[in-house]
Structure formats: structure tokens, C-alpha cells
Design a protein that fits this description.
The longest helix is centred in the last third of the chain and has 15 residues, at 135-149. The chain has helices at 13-26, 42-47, 64-71, 109-114, 135-149; strands spanning 4-8, 29-33, 57-61, 76-79, 85-86, 97-100, 119-121. It is built from five helices and seven strands; from the N terminus they run βαβαβαβββαβα. A seven-stranded parallel sheet has the order 3-2-1-6-4-7-5. It is an alpha/beta fold. It has one domain: 3-Layer(aba) Sandwich (Alpha/beta knot). α1 runs parallel beside α5 (135-149).
Length: 156
């Protein structure tokens, strides 16, 4: 049993590092969709504190279109501030994929428009000047709701 966390064009290494650590600790699969805003070489990963990288179930994709070619028929939840459904109202299943977009732009609008019924959001104040939650925090919030619904499979 696994949930798949998909980061589409992540830009900030520490965010990806935090999410990679969570993926390793929860036996989730992490997908990174290029282009990335950082290098995946050993020195860069070590600098970002990713000494646990060998424990991450990682898939790297050259582009969003390539990712969609391979996985487009799978259940995909799109985490976006533009979602109408709260993430707690999503009914997660084993092997679901949860997509998160770039820190500065989110997921591509055309992807959200094509899969509106799968767009989910985390509630936050509408009076704030903030656009969204930090990527690693948002990924953890949604991932743990999915794992909770699945009764934390394989976790103690």
C-alpha cells in the first residue's frame, strides 16, 4: 500500500528535502517532475540534509507530459488553492497520487481545468496576504489525511 506524492517542478531544495523525508518515513512514493529548481547530485542533496535519500522510493520524470503519459489514467488529487473541495472531503484510496505544483506558481491551470473534480484545497484565511501554505507543510497535511483514511497502512 502506498500513496504517491508528486511534486511538479519543485523549486526550493529544503521543501523537497522535507517531503522526501516524510515519504521515506511513511513508505510513500515520491515523484519529482522536471524541470527542478535544484540539482539532484550527491553534494546538493547532502547540503539539503538528505542523508536519508537511499530510503526514499523515488521516481523522476523529465516533464509533466511524460508523467501524464505514464500515469494519466491513475487517480490523481490536485492540491491547489483553486480547488473547491476540502482535502478532508476527498476519499483517498491505496495508490492514489497527490500532485503539488511549484512554490511560486502552483499546478498548471490547464491541468486543474481538465481535472476540476479532483482539485482539493486546504482551508485558510481569505483575509491573509499569503497565497498558500508552504509546500512541505501542505504535502504533509494532505498526505497524513490520506494515510489516516487508510488507517496508516504499515506504520506504527
Amino acid at each position: 500500500m502506498s500513496i504517491h506524492i508528486v511534486l511538479v517542478e519543485p523549486e526550493i531544495p529544503p521543501n523537497t528535502g522535507n517531503i522526501a523525508r516524510t515519504a521515506a518515513a511513511t513508505d510513500s512514493v515520491l515523484h519529482l517532475v522536471k524541470p527542478l529548481g535544484f540539482s539532484l547530485d550527491e553534494k546538493s542533496l547532502r547540503r539539503a540534509g538528505l542523508d536519508y535519500w537511499p530510503y526514499v522510493r523515488l521516481e523522476i520524470h523529465e516533464s509533466l507530459s511524460g508523467f501524464m503519459e505514464e500515469y494519466g489514467d491513475r487517480r490523481m488529487w490536485l492540491a491547489t488553492t483553486k480547488g473547491e473541495r476540502l482535502y478532508t472531503r476527498a476519499e483517498f484510496r491505496d495508490e492514489d497520487m497527490i500532485l503539488f505544483g511549484r512554490e511560486t506558481a502552483g499546478l498548471p491551470r490547464e491541468l486543474i481545468d481538465a481535472r476540476k473534480e479532483w482539485a482539493i484545497r486546504i482551508p485558510m484565511s481569505r483575509d491573509t496576504r499569503l497565497r498558500s501554505f508552504n509546500l512541505s507543510n501542505a504535502a504533509n497535511i494532505v498526505l497524513f489525511e490520506a494515510l489516516r483514511q487508510l488507517d496508516f497502512p504499515g506504520l506504527e
